[in-house]
Write a sequence for this structure.
């Protein structure tokens, strides 16, 4: 097997949504209250959602920028690589990076609808969520069947509405829902409360994976006075340990033995130690009476229920068997600051070779675990031989992948839109 033979499925990328995304999907009753994109006095794109203004930070759209231009400052589409927001350019960028298929998380409404918390009209909130999901399925994933994997979101503030949306999306073939990894940080009930049980029942009934992307849990960290942003950036992936512990200790898998969890952008390097600690705890601290379910070890429960995802994790690949070869998937994180675009194959291949990974192990981590976990026929629309890194890159010889400053993207954007 060579690098160009790999089939890459990225289980975590992101969309910077275009201004017209709600135009064709909001119910007539709520069209005048749909989220709207406006220009700030500084010329930056801003979304207004029921009076609240939000935008896109630079770290969410850095792909192809010079590293010295990265930062938390807000940015607009004029400064971005078009693949951030244009699905046709996105697929071309995927080809250039040798990526066959990709699952994408929202930006405008937050990874999991966190940006809709302030809306007082719950029916409006549900309408925005359904409109987003329909846009995502039809306009983002629809034009290129097999290349973009649909993922839905639900109304976190109305569990009955969440159940209804899961059932609706299940009928449309969606097999993943994005959900906050620590809902209690948002003032929502915990998994131990039983509040989410009807929603989790619907997830299992529809054979869906609950994707829990890092982000909400950042608010559990107290930033020491005087510390730079590096403190959070370094710690961020390790916060998935909180999510895993919350679910296990809450007895979620005792109540839902068929529930599947995707830990998005959490890395996998922490998992071997976590499993060792979990197994030791369950045998050493029997006095607590903790029952995580099914009469299995902690490691066995974790490996049955959790899929870990990594971007670059060289040390962890040496411990892949301890993690579980069926429990590891790869991700690109385009267009965020952790993304390895446009050299993902080269970077991943080097790590795989350094860890002496065999062909069957590579295939599991790069695509087949995703197909199995999410119940996707990856090659329904495109033959397997056309899905390799080499085959895709052969289609993308004209795609520019060089470092390009924001000012140049803005010049091109303005030239295109003034023509």
């Amino acid at each position: 097997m060579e690098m160009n033979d790999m089939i890459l499925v990225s289980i975590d990328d992101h969309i910077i949504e275009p201004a017209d995304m709600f135009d064709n999907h909001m119910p007539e009753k709520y069209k005048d209250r749909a989220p709207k994109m406006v220009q700030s006095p500084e010329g930056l794109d801003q979304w207004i959602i029921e009076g609240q203004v939000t935008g896109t930070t630079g770290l969410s759209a850095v792909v192809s920028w010079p590293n010295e231009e990265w930062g938390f400052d807000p940015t607009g589409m004029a400064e971005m690589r078009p693949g951030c927001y244009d699905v046709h350019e996105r697929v071309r960028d995927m080809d250039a990076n040798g990526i066959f298929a990709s699952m994408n998380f929202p930006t405008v409404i937050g990874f999991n609808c966190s940006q809709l918390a302030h809306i007082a009209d719950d029916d409006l909130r549900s309408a925005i969520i359904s409109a987003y999901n329909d846009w995502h399925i039809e306009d983002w994933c629809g034009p290129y069947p097999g290349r973009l994997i649909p993922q839905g979101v639900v109304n976190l503030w109305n569990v009955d509405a969440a159940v209804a949306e899961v059932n609706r999306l299940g009928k449309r073939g969606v097999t993943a829902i994005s959900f906050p990894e620590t809902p209690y940080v948002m003032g929502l009930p915990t998994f131990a409360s039983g509040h989410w049980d009807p929603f989790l029942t619907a997830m299992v009934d529809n054979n869906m994976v609950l994707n829990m992307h890092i982000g909400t849990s950042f608010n559990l960290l107290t930033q020491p006075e005087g510390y730079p942003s590096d403190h959070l950036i370094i710690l961020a992936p390790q916060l998935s340990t909180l999510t895993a512990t919350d679910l296990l200790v809450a007895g979620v898998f005792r109540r839902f033995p068929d529930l599947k969890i995707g830990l998005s952008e959490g890395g996998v390097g922490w998992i071997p130690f976590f499993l060792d600690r979990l197994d030791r705890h369950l045998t050493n601290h029997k006095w607590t009476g903790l029952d995580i379910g099914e009469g299995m070890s902690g490691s066995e429960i974790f490996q049955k229920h959790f899929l870990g995802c990594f971007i670059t994790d060289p040390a962890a690949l040496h411990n892949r068997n301890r993690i579980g070869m069926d429990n590891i998937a790869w991700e690109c994180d385009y267009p965020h600051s952790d993304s390895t675009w446009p050299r993902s194959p080269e970077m991943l291949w080097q790590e795989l070779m350094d860890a002496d990974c065999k062909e069957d192990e590579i295939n599991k981590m790069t695509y087949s675990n995703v197909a199995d976990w999410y119940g996707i026929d990856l090659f329904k629309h495109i033959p397997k031989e056309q899905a390799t890194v080499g085959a895709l890159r052969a289609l993308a010889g004209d795609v520019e992948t060089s470092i390009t400053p924001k000012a140049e993207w803005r010049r091109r954007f303005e030239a295109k839109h003034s023509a």
Q: What stands out?
A: The longest strand covers residues 8-14. The chain is about 35% helix and 15% strand. The two ends are 48 Å apart (CA to CA). Residues 122-140 form the longest helix (19 residues).
